[in-house]
Amino acid sequence: MTWGILFLAGLLEIGWAIGLKYSAGFTRLVPSVLTAASMLGSVVMLGLALRTLPLGTAYAIWTGIGTIGTAIFGIMVLGEPAGVARLLCIAVIVAGILGLKILSPH
């Protein structure tokens, strides 16, 4: 259950990172409210996961999920470059997340 909470926290991190783009510096009401709600939910869920998971592992996975999801969103929706080197770097982050999950004692 803890890993699921951490995964959802990471998904909400993706949501608030994307929301920052669409809130236009918190000048647009609906994107700003959704971004703030995603921020709060993400941090609360990370805090819940930290009850049982090691800090370094949980934080690295949380930020990794956010990084990967935001980068993929940028490529797929915003037309950001998807060069081989960039995709390989994203793959390295995925490998790091999987490694931390596999090696975690919880």
TrEMBL record:
Coarse class of the protein's main subcellular location: membrane
Query: Membrane-crossing residues?
Result: 33-50, 57-78, 84-103
What subcellular compartments does it reside in? Cell membrane
A Pfam family cross-referenced in the UniProt record is: Multi_Drug_Res
InterPro entries, sorted: EmrE-like, Small_drug/metabolite_transptr, Small_multidrug_res
What keywords sit in the KW lines? Answer: Cell membrane, Membrane, Transmembrane, Transmembrane helix, Transport
Q: How does it sit in the membrane?
A: Multi-pass membrane protein
**Coiled-coil parts of chain:** none
Q: Which family does it belong to?
A: Belongs to the drug/metabolite transporter (DMT) superfamily. Small multidrug resistance (SMR) (TC 2.A.7.1) family. Gdx/SugE subfamily.
From the Swiss-Prot or TrEMBL record, give the protein name: Guanidinium exporter
What is this protein's gene name?
sugE
